[in-house]
Amino acid sequence: MTVTAERPLLDGPANGGVTARRAVVRWAWRLLRRGWRQQIVVTALLALAVLGAVVGGSAAVNLTPRADARYGNADHLVRLDGTDPRALGEGVALARQKLGTIELIGRRFVPVPGSVESLELRAADPRGVYGAPLLALDRGRLPRGPGETALTDGAAEMLGLRIGGTLTAGGEHRTVVGIVENPRDLRDEFALVPPAGAAAPQSVTVLAKVSPETFDAYRQASRTPLVTDTLRGGGQAAAGVLAVATVLLMLVSLVAAAAFAVVAQRRLRQIGMLAAIGATQRQLRLVMLANGAAVGVIAAAAGTLAGVLAWMPVSGTLETAAGHRISPLSPSWSLILECAVLAVVMATAAAWWPARTVARVPVVQALSDRPPRPKASHRPALLAVLLLAVGATCLVLADQTSPPLIILGTFCTVLGTLFASPPAIKALALLGARAPIAVRLALRDLARHRSRSAAALAAISLALGIPVAVIVSTAAAQDTAATGNLSDRQLLVRIGQRGDAVVPIRSARELAGLSAQMNLIAGRLGGARVIPLEMAADPAIKPEPGFEDAQGGQPVADLGIPTGGSSSDQGGGDGGGRADGALRSVPLYLANPQLLAHLHVDPAGIDPRTDVITAQTGRLEIPSVSKPEVLTNVRRVKGTAYTSDPDSVLTTAGLERRHWKRVPAGWLIESGRPLTTDQVVGARHIAAEAGVTVESRRDQRSLGQIRLGAALAGMLLALGVLAMTVGLIRIEAARDLRTLTATGASGRVRRTITAATAGALALLGVVLGSLGAYAGLLAGYSGDIGRLGQVPVLYLAGVAVGVPLVAAAAGWLFAGREPPAISRQALE
């Protein structure tokens, strides 16, 4: 038998070619226009993520310290010694000859009366050719004559001065005429004086803008070694911003994947009709891809515009944390453009996986509008473990210095969290098997639609993981593992200067007067406790003559802790053992009942053989005596971790065994409530009159503001993503709710289902986000894991408890009324 195949009437490819693809894209666009009410939720969800990426990326760019904070309009600087006027004149003349146009800034440091701090007297021209951007007038006016000065706000607060007050420093009296600042470094504290009326500087900074070749020629022509520096681009800052942008755009991708999974389910019957009339799987995927690209363009435009508008009020709140002025009209435009373009690309790419899944659904199953059965979750669990392990390994190897490894580690950690979402949803559904029926229905619905639930959960986890990482890392960035040098209730009064191993000798009469002044300070603080501090001196070391007064100063013993290098014991506890590496010095005070009570040590329970009681860890030495020794009889106690808090004492028995003598060194004043700025300034004035110095808590409000801002921003972003995701899920489940309503389910049941859905996703998001953030931080701080020991419990508890509660409450409040879509079947 012969079979004749007739030639088709129409030539061209079997799948329709470009014409078919054009028709499919037009059909996808018409579906988008027809169902814009449902698509607007997806678009708003993506626009919110783009807004977060734009604002978060701009914040990350501006929170990095400015590299030009010392250069102004220059790109090179030279520091010249000002103590030798002749050498200084020759250095300035050579700089003018070799570098051309230069600007000179004189600096002189003077002690602040009654404080351990020093004040910089800066002789600079506010209209200088290079240094003008480094000076800005806040209020008042700029100094003009030799008897005038302008202070930064921090210096004015430290000195307790206002405009019109008199600054007495360096043997000069100047009237404060204004408040100034360095707009590029708000932490730069100084007193501005006119260059014409300034005294001889201790050092001079030369600013210049020349080519590298010219600057090298100048350095070679100099006959004396120069301290030079060159303005460099912020490579590490750019790498950090790139890592932040990667994470934020990953959030966009996850949100898009969650949204398009819902859209794909809603279009399942229409996709089935296309497949029934002969559409290929590639053409079916093109429907969703075209939809994703269109939604991505709209969302990118709306989110970018909203992000630029939102950046204007946000920028002002970041200035304190950033340490420099931020213009509301100058966000990171390059990063914004990158976010907008990549948002479209990622939205299109995020639609690919739901499109692939829907295109593979059998035609009959698609026409019946039944979702595909979820796959077993053991593979995502294994992938999650593998990716988290790879991410942790990359972060450990990066050691906070390798941008490629940091980005790769962050990316793998985020992907690990994504793949951990399906097993987490399944586990939660199993745990809720004995929950009330409404809660059980909500959890089973999440497990049944695990593909879009997992993507939504990953987006929420990432939105919460970012602020958790910021909160914990800012706690690790404090001066110590705790919260600074001293408590906000403490003042440390020293007879000498901070860090000096020599204490001025005071007579008994002078010490009695100083003690009375300390009681006066304590009385003004509301009956604060005064703890006298003494240190040990080796009689074999004679006092140094001419130290601050005619009586000289007495060298005292301190505690040395090796910071590196090898060490060896040569004589055990009898002396002679020294560390070959560098030593970190810690003040070693003498035990008295008040100080032991401060350390929570019972004097009766001290072993007579104990030499030192300390909160310090590791090998301990006493290097600052005539016979240095390595300590062996040491009792460890739990300290406060404040760097200046007295936490190391030499026992009375240890003092007597060494035949050392007592030297009064100062007082620790501890109030029952936090000290105000006026109280600290008043204590400094009393201390200045008494000839002693006061150390108080350093201001670290900027880190607290970063933590609070990160917590609030992360919670709002997560709640926004959660609200829109739950809205999409409930729209998709309208048929199920209609069935429940028809069987007699009340509004309370609908409220419970929505609240349980929102609360479950929020709870899982908090857990996964916190675990992912801590996994990355533990790997990143592997070389200094102790810095993560101080957990900011209050902030983390606010995120962990507040987000699920707010999500559940909002779901309960806004899900009671029966929408028209439930009572009426929508035609597709």
From TrEMBL:
Membrane topology: Multi-pass membrane protein
Compositionally biased tracts (Gly residues): 570-579
Database matches in Pfam families: FtsX (PF02687)
PANTHER family: BLL1001 PROTEIN, MEMBRANE COMPONENT OF PREDICTED ABC SUPERFAMILY METABOLITE UPTAKE TRANSPORTER
Main location: membrane
UniProt name for this protein: ABC3 transporter permease C-terminal domain-containing protein
Localisation per UniProt entry: Cell membrane
Region (Disordered): 545-579
Organism from which the protein derives: Actinomadura napierensis
UniProt entry tagged with the keyword Cell membrane: yes
Residue ranges constituting the ABC3 transporter permease C-terminal domain according to the UniProt record: 243-361
Chain ranges passing through the membrane: 40-61, 237-263, 284-312, 332-353, 380-398, 404-433, 454-477, 708-731, 752-781, 793-815
UniProt keyword list: Cell membrane, Membrane, Transmembrane, Transmembrane helix
Entries under InterPro entries matching the protein: ABC3_permease_C (IPR003838), Membrane_comp_ABC_pdt (IPR038766)
